[in-house]
């Protein structure tokens, strides 16, 4: 039966947009531009460690703990370079501020194959569309610069919401913004627990973007799996 959908909500990172190169590479390139030699692999490892620790200590960009997301990110960048051997505080500040801006640039992000076409088709079907993303306030600008913002009635970030996926409250806010009941809405994302499971727990439909060969992870009914974004139309027009 046709899912009687009114609203689609979308994850962004690795669902609609992905980084053109790994974090370690872009950080190392910026360091080189400032005359510093740092190994991309070491930086990538440092970043993952620092990002993990910062996320545990200050969840959701330090929301409610007196941190701005900008400060949260500047700290992550500086600490990643410190862990990789850069000690010069002036250089660290300059690197952090430049990289914080760079991650708003369309040169840093690329639109996933099929994303723009799929979003256009969904709008042609008359579906309302919104973003639900564990991202900071830069997301509006990033989506605009990557020419995707116009597809969406709203962009709900975890920073603006105060809740991060898999917390069901961010989905409840999205449903209010989209004017839909849970059973009239579907969420699309690439993460099993934060996207697929969390949206279902909130009473929504959901689809998991999982490329062929990404078989690891919990079992999901095949009709809920999207090998590519282009598969979505067939799933919702059934």
From TrEMBL:
* Encoding gene (name): Hdhd3
Q: Which organism is it from?
A: Hylia prasina
Q: Which family does it belong to?
A: Belongs to the HAD-like hydrolase superfamily.
Lineage top rank: taxon: Eukaryota
- Which SUPFAM superfamilies does the record associate with it? HAD-like
Give me the Gene Ontology terms describing cellular component.
nucleus
| Name of the protein described by the UniProt record | Haloacid dehalogenase-like hydrolase domain-containing protein 3
């Amino acid at each position: 039966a046709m899912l009687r959908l009114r609203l689609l909500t979308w994850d962004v990172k690795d669902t609609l947009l992905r980084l053109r190169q790994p974090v370690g590479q872009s950080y190392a390139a910026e360091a080189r531009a400032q005359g510093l030699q740092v190994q991309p692999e070491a930086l990538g490892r440092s970043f993952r460690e620092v990002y993990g620790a910062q996320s545990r200590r200050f969840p959701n960009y330090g929301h409610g703990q007196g941190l701005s997301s900008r400060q949260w990110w500047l700290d992550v960048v500086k600490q990643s370079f410190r862990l990789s051997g850069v000690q010069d505080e002036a250089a660290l500040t300059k690197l952090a501020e430049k990289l914080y801006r760079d991650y708003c640039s369309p040169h840093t992000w690329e639109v996933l194959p099929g994303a723009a076409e799929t979003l256009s088709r969904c709008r042609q079907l008359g579906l309302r569309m919104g973003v639900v993303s564990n991202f900071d306030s830069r997301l509006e600008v990033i989506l605009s610069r990557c020419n995707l913002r116009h597809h969406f009635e709203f962009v709900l970030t975890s920073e603006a919401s105060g809740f991060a996926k898999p917390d069901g409250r961010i989905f409840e806010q999205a449903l209010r913004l989209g004017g839909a009941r849970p059973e009239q809405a579907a969420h699309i994302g690439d993460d099993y627990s934060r996207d697929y499971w969390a949206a279902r727990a909130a009473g929504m439909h959901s689809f998991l973007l999982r490329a062929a060969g990404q078989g690891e992870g919990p079992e999901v009914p095949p009709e809920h799996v999207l090998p590519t974004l282009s598969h979505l139309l067939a799933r919702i027009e059934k």
